[in-house]
Design brief:
The protein is built from 9 helices and 10 strands. Strand 3, helix 3 (about 100-115) and strand 4 form a beta-alpha-beta unit. With about 300 residues, it is α/β, with parallel strands linked by helices. The chain is about 35% helix and about 20% strand. It has a 6-stranded mixed β-sheet with strand order 5-4-3-6-7-10, with helices on both faces. It folds into 2 domains: about 5-10 and about 75-295, Rossmann fold (3-Layer(aba) Sandwich), CATH 3.40.50.410; about 40-70, no CATH class.
Length: about 300
């Protein structure tokens, strides 16, 4: 299990905050500015306090002893896309500080929030070297356990046609956009270690009207490597090796370049209206969701 029942209950009290509301993107608890006039049934969602009781399906309530609200075709819902980098560079670290496990827990939390509030959820992987995997689109808490199993299988490597190696974020994001998907909130969770970059891919998302958030995940020892001496470093994705001599001056230069890189990403995102959050696996993932993302206006 990616996270326990107590954490899940806390997560289910949250909802996602979209910074840009667009017509045709919202449903459920988020009301459209236009009234749904169609009487054609589309789906159900769980009743929440404040819903119009005239929309409650009393026949279903009598059978199941649970209240459900009927949704009509012209109502709008928020499409939530959680896009996860599962390339080889994400397989770094141990226990809950391992980047891939950390990332999948973040993805699971975002997915659980979306399902609990009636949003339309799609989870997809971003990588080259294997067939991209996808869960959804689905809506409703009845899909929660299936979503968690999907993510656990990714952690175990069971959902990949072959071991993913490198990530080309630009190509992966472009390919995702080219599929006929309804725009909405897009969470890109990655270490951004992609030689081809990420900006063109993000531009494809923005061009189609997605509300983009980048969750930039790095391991603690990638931020401050505990290395010294003469070493041979091997790129986990390309296999290329580099002979280096690491001393105090080299480590300081590395930390400065890393800080400059993250600040460059932050500025670029701000200029294009993309939300950016830099994360370290040294910070507990549930603290990120329950406190940091709430404080930053990503959830409420």
């Amino acid at each position: 299990m990616l996270f326990d029942e107590a954490t899940l209950r806390k997560i289910n009290q949250l909802s996602l905050i979209a910074t840009r509301v667009r017509a045709g993107v919202m449903k459920g608890e988020r009301r459209s500015s236009k009234r749904g006039s169609s009487i054609e049934f589309a789906d159900y969602r769980d009743y929440t306090a404040g819903d119009d009781l005239r929309r409650l399906d009393w026949n279903v309530y009598a059978r199941l002893d649970r209240p459900f609200i009927k949704l009509l075709e012209e109502e709008e819902d928020l499409a939530v896309h959680v896009l996860v980098d599962i390339s080889k560079s994400m397989d770094w670290g141990e226990a809950e500080a391992q980047k891939l496990g950390y990332t999948l827990r973040l993805a699971g939390a975002l997915g659980a929030i979306a399902l609990s509030t009636g949003d339309r959820l799609t989870l997809a992987t971003l990588h080259l070297g294997g067939t991209p995997q996808q869960f959804g689109p689905v809506r409703g808490t009845q899909h929660l356990m299936r979503m968690l199993v999907f993510l656990e299988n990714l952690l175990d490597g069971k959902n990949a046609a072959q071991q993913p190696l490198a990530t080309n974020l630009d190509r992966s994001l472009r390919d995702y956009v080219l599929e006929s998907r309804r725009p909405g909130m897009a969470f890109v969770i990655s270490d951004l270690f992609s030689p081809a970059g990420y900006q063109d891919g993000v531009n494809h998302l923005l061009g189609r009207g997605y509300d983009v958030t980048i969750l930039h995940v790095l391991a603690a020892d990638e931020i401050d490597p505990p290395l010294a001496g003469d070493l041979r470093l091997v790129d986990s994705e390309t296999g290329l090796a580099q002979e280096v001599s690491i001393d105090g001056g080299m480590r300081l230069a590395y930390r400065q370049r890393l800080l400059a890189w993250r600040e460059e990403i932050r500025r670029s995102c701000q200029q294009r209206g993309v939300r950016y959050m830099d994360l370290s696996t040294a910070t507990a993932w549930d603290k990120v969701v329950l406190y940091e993302m709430r404080r930053g206006g990503y959830v409420k």
